[in-house]
Automatic annotation (TrEMBL):
This is DNA topoisomerase. Residues 728-738 have a biased composition (Low complexity). The keyword Isomerase applies. Its EC number is 5.6.2.1. InterPro entries: Topo_IA, Topo_IA_2, Topo_IA_AS, Topo_IA_cen, Topo_IA_cen_sub1, Topo_IA_cen_sub2, Topo_IA_cen_sub3, Topo_IA_core_domain.
């Protein structure tokens, strides 16, 4: 009986024929230079019996699918028609000789044995071979072999156990091929034709793939998270104690808090206790688990991380090792070994190696442990493992040896015992807070002795603490930290995301990653690795999206798909349907109908909103036509010129602010977009409740409103982000004394006009003569009476161009071209732009001369009239657009230096305190000046000044303490400053003090309630000034009893030991 056997690769055909033929193989040449026919004799244990066997092979898919002739040309039809077009099979031109060889050999054969790889693609390729053979011999009997490695006994067993081809897997691949062809062709033609208007892309193919774009989407999404990341401050408490001459650091159980006041009050409460108590000492065994058996995904993830080799190269090397018979089949989802695999015999083959031979021998002696069983089993292949031992000099390259060594070490680690250690955990209680520390002592390395890619080291041993013991603390501190930005995606992380989200299969993940690299949608750059990693000599790469990649993702996201093509949801849903086809739960016809119609509707929507897509793409490619299309494409993407406006200087600055050129490493925005960043600069806003200033570009999110809004970070007052009239009467909602504002509105209007006239005079002087202090000596007689809020009513809005500012992280990314860092370049541009307005410096100098007491904030002066000299440069968008392309950043002229830019005075001096006056505070008998002098001399705190009688004629201020001042205190010493208690005359720290009558400081235990109870004040005091001008202090109980809930003058920040009622204190604090 004559049998034709067909393998998927020439090397597999040669290896199997050698095994089954017992070394007696007759080789015949074919017309294909890579494929040969191998004739052997073999006796099957089923009806084929002793047969004459010819082994041959293919090299991948023999058949390719394409559209009918009328749809082949790109301009022959609307891409939308491709969704309904008929596709026809044709023989791949490169496989014509292989096709003819199968036809010839199958004519005289009675049986056809398929030995292709045991996965979906292998099943489909086997079907292609069957269809070709039946053209020549319709009656040929077909069988299918299942095998996962080239070990001799395994192959012989597989030859004696034939199966039928799984038609459900064949249908799944056929459905996927038709779907990918139609959707990919339609969207690729759509994108390519759309982008031909951009000269650098005129001859490029902008391909689309249902796996390519979600893969690209992962990279762009992480890139955006990195670029838009804003660091956030947090606070924690650190405790250090000495025990038996050993210093021990204890970490806070809460880890960190993002509210400084809460952390400070907790820390203050802890400081009341001199000692801490050891509440628990736990000593327990701990294990570090050995890895699961190796799957394809884990091989790629760990290989890219530990070996520094790309996933594409890892899979190519693994395929080579497999075809040579060194390892098992490298495409598997199984992470558990079946009981019929002789693991000890596989270990025994590794005992002669110089590096891991002794460890393998120890496993055979006594340390062998059955590998852990994972949750995945594809019931086709075993986990990846070494089949035979290979010496280092038998492998062609260093990377081959790296991959083979990793597979061997991983296999030996799977068969080892877990690493074992002893862990000690000590918990300390200081006040009401808990702190912990731990130590680890490794007892047995076990699998870590051979698996060098992971580390588990012993830490410094801890002293022998005793439970219940009281210990003294050597050092405590409330420390401040900042959250750190996430890093860009590494290949290992990208593979994990694709696997979790079902993008591609375990065997195609590497191909999709390579595809987006080849298409230049992303590029790789080296990443500094963590020093703790074992493989420090291997480079880890991270993925950065190119301008084109970002534009494509943003374009499809902006179109408004419910499920964007750049998101993984559509492809994940499709992969689940393909799996259902394999399981018999879904048909090929249903799959094609549902999915092709879904993508057809998406295509129609994209075509309807093509203007949106063009606009997004235009942003990043507006100026790329300046490059010759013959230049290298990748170079063009990374050298987009950034043109910006440099001709808006005032005449007096022209000699200083000349046109300069810089080298931009990369630009992700066009010129107009860049200039718009200046227009949308950060306006300092003033909170009308607490008078704190903060940048308007720092949004905070309110969970109840579920929308972006602006809130004062000090008092949490909601400020509108849409309306410039943010200085509305919020105080009137919170303070009954705000009636001053209504009663004196006419007086306030006069002040506004007075101030505007002053600025008009300043403008006239600036136009006629140079700026000097003498010219302004009589401009403002009494700036103390100028109210900030009066000067910035809605009739006189703050100018948009006063303090231009660029968010560097959102405007550019780094590529390896250019000679200046982006941060340096953008900072120079920012300073140059700000100085070129010709106004800011004069206003600041004016403010420094006349307002050195800092009674008003120069950041919020209405200076719109100062810009009347520049209407054509700032106020008219058309003029700006006409001037956008005047200056080009190029590598030829990089002649600007920091010295070329005139210095800019700071808007405010770094005073110890800042004092702001709300609009309804009036000056009586120069009391404001007296208050300021006392305040700035640091002799009296503003809160005490408002609640005492040390300053004359301060009645109006006393009635309006809430929201009148914004105080930036000095940094507190570790345990606060020291003073004397007014009652016991003993020393008192800031953290222990409580404000008493006449600005005195009291111990909490010494301050008695002015009510009937006479108790000590240990839970917060409520203060009131009586008719005689003396302060009385009440506890909360007496206040509610005597004053019937009347709103107090102030609430002192005095907390009880139990830290109760945080929220109430936060809401009512001054």
């Amino acid at each position: 009986m004559k049998i034709l056997c067909v393998a998927e690769k020439p090397s597999i055909a040669r290896a199997i024929s050698d095994i089954l033929g017992g070394g007696k193989v007759h080789i015949r040449e074919t017309k294909d230079i890579y494929n040969k026919n191998y004739d052997i004799r073999f006796k099957f244990n089923f009806n084929w019996g002793d047969s004459s066997v010819t082994f041959t092979s293919v090299r991948g898919h023999l058949i390719e699918w394409e559209f009918e002739e009328k749809f082949k040309k790109w301009n022959s039809c609307n891409p939308l028609n491709l969704f309904e077009a008929k596709i026809i099979p044709t023989v791949n031109k490169d496989m014509k000789n292989i096709h003819d060889n199968i036809l010839k050999e199958s004519r005289n054969a009675q049986g056809l044995y398929i030995w292709t790889d045991c996965d979906r693609e292998g099943e489909y390729i086997g079907t292609e071979v069957v269809n070709i053979a039946r053209k020549a011999n319709p009656k040929i009997e077909v069988k299918r072999a299942h095998f996962n490695n080239l070990e001799r006994m395994h192959i012989i067993k597989a030859a004696h156990r034939p199966f039928d081809i799984d038609q459900r897997q064949v249908n799944a691949v056929a459905a996927r091929i038709e779907f990918d062809l139609k959707t990919g062709s339609a969207f690729t033609r759509f994108q390519t034709l759309l982008l031909q208007s951009f000269e650098p892309l005129a001859k490029e193919i902008i391909s689309y793939g249902s796996c390519q774009f979600p893969t690209l989407g992962f990279v762009v999404d992480r890139w955006k998270r990195v670029e838009n990341f804003v660091s956030e401050k947090f606070w924690s408490i650190k405790v250090i104690c000495s025990y038996n001459n050993n210093e021990v650091l204890f970490n806070w159980k809460r880890i960190r808090l993002f509210d400084k006041l809460s952390a400070f009050l907790i820390y203050e409460n802890c400081l009341l206790f001199d000692k801490a108590k050891v509440v628990s000492v736990v000593r327990k065994p701990k294990s570090k688990l050995r890895p699961y058996p190796l799957t394809t995904v884990e091989l790629q993830k760990r290989g890219t991380k530990y070996l520094g080799i790309s996933s594409k190269d890892i899979m190519t090397i693994a395929e080579t090792l497999y075809t040579k018979g060194f390892i098992s089949y490298p495409r598997t989802e199984t992470d558990q070994f079946s009981n019929d695999i002789d693991l000890r015999s596989l270990i025994e083959k590794q005992v002669n190696d110089e590096q891991w031979g002794n460890y393998a021998q120890s496993l055979l002696n006594e340390k062998f442990c059955q590998p852990r069983k994972g949750k995945n089993n594809d019931k086709a292949h075993a986990p990846i493992h070494p089949v035979t031992y290979v010496k280092k000099n038998s492998l062609k390259s260093a990377n081959e040896h790296k991959v083979y060594s990793f597979i061997v070490r991983h296999f030996l680690a799977c068969c080892s015992q877990d690493a074992k250690a002893k862990q000690t955990v000590i918990v300390l209680q200081w006040g009401e807070e808990f702190f912990s520390t731990s130590a680890l002592i490794v007892l047995e390395n076990n699998y870590l002795d051979v698996y060098l890619y992971e580390k588990w080291n012993s830490s410094v041993s801890l002293p022998d603490f005793n439970q219940g013991e009281m210990i003294e603390l050597d050092y405590t501190e409330m420390i401040e930290g900042k959250t750190e930005s996430p890093g860009h995606l590494t290949e290992s992380e990208l593979i994990n995301l694709m696997n979790i989200n079902g993008i591609g299969t375990d065997s195609t993940i590497a191909e999709h990653i390579q595809k987006i690299l080849d298409r230049k949608y992303v590029f790789k750059q080296s990443k500094n690795k963590n020093k703790s990693e074992r493989s420090q000599n291997n480079t880890i790469y991270e993925f950065i999206p190119s301008t084109l990649g970002i534009a494509l993702v943003d374009g499809y996201d902006r179109i408004g798909f419910d499920q964007s093509l750049a998101k993984p949801f559509l492809r994940k849903e499709m992969e689940l349907k393909l799996k259902n086809i394999c399981d018999g739960k879904y048909s090929k016809e249903e799959f094609l109908k549902d999915n092709i119609n879904q993508y057809k509707n998406l295509f129609i929507k994209a075509n309807q909103k093509v203007d949106i897509l063009k606009e997004v793409l235009k942003i990043d490619f507006m100026f790329m036509e300046k490059y010759d299309s013959s230049e290298n494409y990748h170079k063009k993407l990374s050298e987009i010129p950034l043109n910006t406006v440099f001709d808006t200087e005032s005449k007096e600055n022209n000699e200083i602010c000349k046109e300069k050129t810089f080298v931009a490493k990369n630009s992700l925005m066009n010129n107009m977009d860049f200039f718009q960043k200046f227009q949308e600069k950060s306006i300092p806003w003033l909170c009308s409740s607490c008078c704190e200033t903060f940048p308007s570009d720092e949004p905070m999110y309110n969970s109840t409103e579920k929308q972006e809004a602006y809130y004062c970070k000090n008092c949490n007052l909601n400020l509108s982000s849409k309306n410039k009239n943010i200085y509305s009467n919020e105080i009137s909602n919170n303070n009954s004394t705000s009636q001053h504002q209504d009663k004196n509105s006419q007086e306030h209007r006069e002040k506004i006009n007075h101030f505007i006239n002053i600025l008009d005079n300043l403008q006239t002087k600036l136009n006629k003569q140079s700026f000097s202090e003498d010219n302004l000596s009589t401009s403002i007689k009494n700036p103390d009476e100028i109210s900030l809020k009066d000067s910035i009513k809605n009739d006189y809005p703050i100018i948009d161009n006063l303090t231009p500012k660029v968010n560097i992280s959102q405007t550019c990314t780094l590529v390896p071209q250019g000679s200046m860092k982006n941060s340096e370049m953008w900072e120079l541009l920012r300073k140059k732009k700000r100085n070129s307005l010709g106004v800011r410096k004069h206003i600041e100098n004016f403010s420094e001369i006349k307002c050195s007491h800092n009674s008003f904030n120069t950041n919020i002066i209405d200076a719109s009239s100062e810009l009347s000299n520049f209407p054509d440069k700032i106020g008219k968008k058309e003029t700006l657009e006409s001037k956008i392309s005047f200056i080009t950043l190029s590598e030829a002229q990089t002649n600007i230096s920091q010295e070329n830019i005139p210095p800019i005075s700071p808007s405010t001096k770094n005073y110890k305190h800042k004092l702001f006056l709300p609009d309804h505070v009036k000056s009586e008998n120069n009391c404001i000046l007296e208050l300021k002098n006392s305040f700035l001399s640091n002799s009296t705190s503003p809160k005490k000044a408002l609640t005492s009688n040390t300053i004359s004629n301060i009645k109006s201020l006393k009635n309006n303490s809430t929201g009148a001042f914004s105080v930036k205190k000095k940094p507190l010493p570790k345990f606060g400053g020291f003073d004397k208690c007014a009652s016991c005359n003993e020393s008192i720290t800031f953290l222990e003090s409580c404000p008493g009558p006449n600005s005195t400081k009291w111990h909490k235990k010494c301050l008695k309630c002015s009510g009937k109870c006479g108790k000590n004040m240990d839970s917060g005091s409520l203060n009131e000034i009586d008719k005689d001008g003396k302060m009385k202090v009440y506890c909360r109980f007496c206040w509610d009893t005597i004053k019937k809930g009347k709103k107090p003058m102030t609430i002192s920040l005095v907390m009880s030991n139990t830290l109760q009622d945080f929220s109430t204190l936060e809401e009512n604090r001054t």
